Protein backbone atom coordinates (compact mmCIF):
# COMPACT_ATOMS: atom_id res chain seq x y z
CA UNK A 1 0.00 0.00 0.00
CA UNK A 2 1.23 3.49 -0.84
CA UNK A 3 2.25 5.56 2.13
CA UNK A 4 0.57 8.91 2.77
CA UNK A 5 3.94 10.49 3.67
CA UNK A 6 6.73 11.40 1.27
CA UNK A 7 10.24 11.83 2.58
CA UNK A 8 12.80 13.76 0.55
CA UNK A 9 15.67 11.31 0.76
CA UNK A 10 18.36 10.31 -1.72
CA UNK A 11 19.50 7.08 -0.13
CA UNK A 12 18.87 4.20 -2.53
CA UNK A 13 17.81 0.68 -1.68
CA UNK A 14 14.97 -1.70 -1.17
CA UNK A 15 13.85 -0.12 2.10
CA UNK A 16 11.56 2.32 0.29
CA UNK A 17 7.96 1.38 -0.46
CA UNK A 18 6.11 3.18 -3.23
CA UNK A 19 5.06 6.61 -1.96
CA UNK A 20 7.75 7.05 0.66
CA UNK A 21 9.91 9.43 -1.39
CA UNK A 22 9.73 11.66 -4.44
CA UNK A 23 10.85 9.98 -7.65
CA UNK A 24 12.02 11.93 -10.69
CA UNK A 25 14.70 11.88 -13.36
CA UNK A 26 18.15 12.70 -11.98
CA UNK A 27 21.78 11.63 -12.21
CA UNK A 28 22.46 9.10 -10.81
CA UNK A 29 19.05 7.56 -11.43
CA UNK A 30 16.81 6.59 -8.55
CA UNK A 31 16.79 2.81 -8.09
CA UNK A 32 14.95 0.51 -5.72
CA UNK A 33 11.82 -1.38 -4.89
CA UNK A 34 9.60 1.70 -5.08
CA UNK A 35 10.78 2.40 -8.63
CA UNK A 36 9.98 -1.19 -9.60
CA UNK A 37 6.48 -0.83 -8.17
CA UNK A 38 5.95 2.49 -9.96
CA UNK A 39 7.02 0.88 -13.26
CA UNK A 40 4.74 -2.09 -12.57
CA UNK A 41 1.76 0.22 -11.96
CA UNK A 42 2.43 2.37 -15.02
CA UNK A 43 2.92 -0.64 -17.27
CA UNK A 44 -0.28 -2.34 -16.09
CA UNK A 45 -2.24 0.88 -16.61
CA UNK A 46 -1.07 1.21 -20.21
CA UNK A 47 2.07 3.34 -19.93
CA UNK A 48 4.98 1.10 -20.85
CA UNK A 49 8.32 1.86 -19.18
CA UNK A 50 10.37 -0.58 -21.23
CA UNK A 51 10.13 -3.25 -18.55
CA UNK A 52 10.40 -3.31 -14.77
CA UNK A 53 14.06 -2.51 -14.23
CA UNK A 54 13.96 -0.73 -10.88
CA UNK A 55 15.82 2.23 -12.40
CA UNK A 56 14.04 5.56 -12.94
CA UNK A 57 15.36 6.58 -16.35
CA UNK A 58 14.14 8.71 -19.23
CA UNK A 59 11.71 6.03 -20.44
CA UNK A 60 10.06 5.83 -17.02
CA UNK A 61 9.84 9.62 -16.80
CA UNK A 62 8.15 9.74 -20.21
CA UNK A 63 5.63 7.09 -19.17
CA UNK A 64 4.97 8.95 -15.91
CA UNK A 65 4.33 12.24 -17.75
CA UNK A 66 1.82 10.53 -20.05
CA UNK A 67 0.09 8.94 -17.05
CA UNK A 68 -0.13 12.29 -15.25
CA UNK A 69 -1.57 14.01 -18.33
CA UNK A 70 -4.01 11.13 -18.74
CA UNK A 71 -5.23 11.60 -15.16
CA UNK A 72 -5.59 15.38 -15.29
CA UNK A 73 -2.44 16.09 -13.27
CA UNK A 74 0.39 18.46 -14.14
CA UNK A 75 2.70 16.33 -16.35
CA UNK A 76 5.89 17.26 -14.49
CA UNK A 77 7.44 13.78 -14.45
CA UNK A 78 7.70 13.84 -10.65
CA UNK A 79 6.05 11.04 -8.67
CA UNK A 80 4.75 12.96 -5.68
CA UNK A 81 1.71 13.28 -3.43
CA UNK A 82 -0.91 13.73 -6.17
CA UNK A 83 0.49 10.96 -8.36
CA UNK A 84 0.63 8.53 -5.45
CA UNK A 85 -2.94 9.44 -4.46
CA UNK A 86 -4.16 8.48 -7.94
CA UNK A 87 -2.18 5.23 -7.85
CA UNK A 88 -3.73 4.41 -4.48
CA UNK A 89 -7.20 4.92 -5.94
CA UNK A 90 -6.32 2.73 -8.94
CA UNK A 91 -4.65 0.06 -6.82
CA UNK A 92 -7.04 -2.71 -7.85
CA UNK A 93 -6.56 -1.83 -11.52
CA UNK A 94 -2.80 -2.43 -11.53
CA UNK A 95 -1.81 -4.66 -8.62
CA UNK A 96 -0.98 -8.17 -9.86
CA UNK A 97 -2.05 -7.22 -13.40
CA UNK A 98 0.07 -7.94 -16.52
CA UNK A 99 2.13 -5.30 -18.27
CA UNK A 100 0.69 -3.84 -21.46
CA UNK A 101 1.77 -5.74 -24.56
CA UNK A 102 1.39 -5.26 -28.28
CA UNK A 103 -1.74 -7.03 -29.40
CA UNK A 104 -4.28 -7.05 -32.18
CA UNK A 105 -7.52 -5.15 -31.75
CA UNK A 106 -10.36 -7.22 -30.36
CA UNK A 107 -12.71 -5.56 -32.87
CA UNK A 108 -15.42 -3.22 -31.67
CA UNK A 109 -18.18 -5.39 -33.13
CA UNK A 110 -17.36 -8.03 -30.51
CA UNK A 111 -18.16 -5.54 -27.77
CA UNK A 112 -21.20 -4.00 -29.45
CA UNK A 113 -23.42 -4.53 -26.41
CA UNK A 114 -21.43 -2.03 -24.33
CA UNK A 115 -22.42 0.76 -26.71
CA UNK A 116 -25.98 0.80 -25.42
CA UNK A 117 -24.95 0.93 -21.77
CA UNK A 118 -22.53 3.88 -21.84
CA UNK A 119 -23.65 7.36 -22.87
CA UNK A 120 -20.84 9.27 -24.59
CA UNK A 121 -21.02 12.60 -26.42
CA UNK A 122 -18.17 12.96 -28.93
CA UNK A 123 -17.09 16.34 -30.20
CA UNK A 124 -14.23 18.13 -31.92
CA UNK A 125 -13.47 21.81 -32.26
CA UNK A 126 -12.08 21.88 -35.80
CA UNK A 127 -12.85 20.18 -39.10
CA UNK A 128 -10.79 17.02 -38.81
CA UNK A 129 -11.60 16.23 -35.19
CA UNK A 130 -15.32 16.86 -35.82
CA UNK A 131 -15.10 14.41 -38.71
CA UNK A 132 -13.53 11.77 -36.45
CA UNK A 133 -16.31 12.31 -33.89
CA UNK A 134 -18.96 11.97 -36.60
CA UNK A 135 -17.42 8.79 -38.01
CA UNK A 136 -17.20 7.26 -34.53
CA UNK A 137 -20.87 8.01 -33.94
CA UNK A 138 -21.86 6.53 -37.32
CA UNK A 139 -19.78 3.39 -36.74
CA UNK A 140 -21.23 2.92 -33.27
CA UNK A 141 -24.78 3.26 -34.58
CA UNK A 142 -24.07 0.85 -37.44
CA UNK A 143 -22.64 -1.65 -34.96
CA UNK A 144 -25.56 -1.33 -32.54
CA UNK A 145 -28.66 0.74 -33.45
CA UNK A 146 -29.27 1.28 -29.72
CA UNK A 147 -25.85 2.85 -29.24
CA UNK A 148 -25.66 5.74 -26.80
CA UNK A 149 -22.40 7.00 -28.31
CA UNK A 150 -23.26 10.05 -30.40
CA UNK A 151 -21.56 13.08 -31.84
CA UNK A 152 -22.48 16.49 -30.46
CA UNK A 153 -23.81 17.48 -33.89
CA UNK A 154 -26.47 14.76 -33.75
CA UNK A 155 -27.35 15.10 -30.07
CA UNK A 156 -31.00 16.18 -29.89
CA UNK A 157 -31.02 17.28 -26.23
CA UNK A 158 -28.34 18.81 -23.98
CA UNK A 159 -26.14 16.15 -22.35
CA UNK A 160 -27.03 15.31 -18.78
CA UNK A 161 -24.58 14.95 -15.90
CA UNK A 162 -24.19 11.20 -16.48
CA UNK A 163 -23.11 11.52 -20.12
CA UNK A 164 -19.35 11.37 -20.68
CA UNK A 165 -18.10 14.26 -22.81
CA UNK A 166 -15.23 13.09 -25.02
CA UNK A 167 -13.36 15.99 -26.63
CA UNK A 168 -11.26 14.87 -29.60
CA UNK A 169 -8.25 17.15 -30.10
CA UNK A 170 -5.06 17.45 -32.10
CA UNK A 171 -1.56 17.65 -30.58
CA UNK A 172 -1.58 21.46 -30.65
CA UNK A 173 -5.08 21.92 -29.22
CA UNK A 174 -5.26 23.13 -25.65
CA UNK A 175 -7.60 21.74 -23.03
CA UNK A 176 -8.19 22.61 -19.40
CA UNK A 177 -5.29 21.26 -17.35
CA UNK A 178 -7.66 19.52 -14.95
CA UNK A 179 -9.34 17.48 -17.71
CA UNK A 180 -7.84 13.97 -18.08
CA UNK A 181 -6.11 13.94 -21.47
CA UNK A 182 -5.50 10.62 -23.21
CA UNK A 183 -2.54 10.43 -25.61
CA UNK A 184 -3.59 8.18 -28.50
CA UNK A 185 -0.02 7.26 -29.48
CA UNK A 186 -0.07 3.57 -28.50
CA UNK A 187 -2.97 1.48 -29.82
CA UNK A 188 -2.16 -1.46 -27.55
CA UNK A 189 -2.45 0.71 -24.43
CA UNK A 190 -5.29 2.99 -25.53
CA UNK A 191 -8.16 1.08 -23.89
CA UNK A 192 -6.41 1.05 -20.51
CA UNK A 193 -5.62 4.74 -20.80
CA UNK A 194 -9.23 5.60 -21.63
CA UNK A 195 -10.49 3.48 -18.73
CA UNK A 196 -8.15 5.21 -16.27
CA UNK A 197 -9.06 8.67 -17.63
CA UNK A 198 -12.79 7.95 -17.32
CA UNK A 199 -12.28 6.82 -13.71
CA UNK A 200 -10.40 10.05 -13.00
CA UNK A 201 -13.12 12.12 -14.68
CA UNK A 202 -15.81 10.41 -12.60
CA UNK A 203 -13.88 11.17 -9.43
CA UNK A 204 -13.63 14.85 -10.45
CA UNK A 205 -17.34 14.85 -11.36
CA UNK A 206 -18.06 13.77 -7.79
CA UNK A 207 -16.48 17.07 -6.76
CA UNK A 208 -18.67 19.07 -9.13
CA UNK A 209 -16.59 19.09 -12.32
CA UNK A 210 -18.07 18.09 -15.71
CA UNK A 211 -17.73 14.41 -16.65
CA UNK A 212 -15.19 15.07 -19.40
CA UNK A 213 -12.03 13.68 -20.96
CA UNK A 214 -9.89 14.75 -23.92
CA UNK A 215 -8.55 12.37 -26.57
CA UNK A 216 -5.38 13.64 -28.23
CA UNK A 217 -4.86 12.18 -31.70
CA UNK A 218 -1.27 11.44 -32.66
CA UNK A 219 -1.73 13.69 -35.69
CA UNK A 220 -4.38 15.41 -37.78
CA UNK A 221 -4.80 15.67 -41.54
CA UNK A 222 -3.37 18.82 -43.10
CA UNK A 223 -5.98 21.27 -44.34
CA UNK A 224 -4.61 21.11 -47.88
CA UNK A 225 -4.59 17.29 -48.02
CA UNK A 226 -6.74 15.50 -50.58
CA UNK A 227 -10.28 14.79 -49.43
CA UNK A 228 -9.69 11.04 -49.82
CA UNK A 229 -6.64 11.19 -47.53
CA UNK A 230 -8.53 13.20 -44.90
CA UNK A 231 -11.38 10.69 -44.95
CA UNK A 232 -8.95 7.76 -44.73
CA UNK A 233 -7.17 9.22 -41.71
CA UNK A 234 -10.43 10.14 -40.00
CA UNK A 235 -11.87 6.66 -40.53
CA UNK A 236 -8.68 5.07 -39.17
CA UNK A 237 -8.74 7.22 -36.03
CA UNK A 238 -12.49 6.64 -35.55
CA UNK A 239 -12.12 2.86 -35.75
CA UNK A 240 -9.15 2.83 -33.38
CA UNK A 241 -10.90 5.05 -30.82
CA UNK A 242 -14.22 3.20 -30.98
CA UNK A 243 -12.43 -0.12 -30.59
CA UNK A 244 -10.54 1.20 -27.56
CA UNK A 245 -13.72 2.60 -25.96
CA UNK A 246 -15.49 -0.74 -26.32
CA UNK A 247 -12.53 -2.54 -24.77
CA UNK A 248 -12.35 0.02 -21.95
CA UNK A 249 -16.05 -0.36 -21.15
CA UNK A 250 -16.12 -4.16 -21.45
Structure description:
With 250 residues, the chain is an alpha/beta fold. The protein has helices spanning 33-44, 58-70, 81-89, 91-94, 127-143, 190-205, 227-249; strands at residues 120-124, 149-151, 164-169, 181-184, 212-217. The chain has a five-stranded parallel β-sheet with strand order 2-1-3-5-4. The relative contact order is 0.14.
Quick rundown:
The chain is of the alpha/beta class.
Q: Features of this protein?
A:
globular; alpha/beta; 5 strands; 250 residues; five-stranded parallel β-sheet
Q: Count the helices. How many? A: 7
Tally the beta strands: 5
Unreliable spans: 102-106
Query: Tell me about the biggest sheet?
Result: 5 strands, parallel
Layout of helices and strands, plus pairs?
Layout: H1 33-44, H2 58-70, H3 81-89, H4 91-94, E1 120-124, H5 127-143, E2 149-151, E3 164-169, E4 181-184, H6 190-205, E5 212-217, H7 227-249
Helix pairs in contact: 5-7, 6-7
Amino acid sequence: MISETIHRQDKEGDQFELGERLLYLRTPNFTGKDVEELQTALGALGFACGGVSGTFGAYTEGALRKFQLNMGLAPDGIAGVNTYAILRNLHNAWMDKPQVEERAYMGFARAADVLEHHAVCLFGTEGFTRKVASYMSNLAMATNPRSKMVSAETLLVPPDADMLLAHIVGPDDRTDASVPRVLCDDASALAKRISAAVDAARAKAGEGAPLRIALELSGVAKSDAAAEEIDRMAHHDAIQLLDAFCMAFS
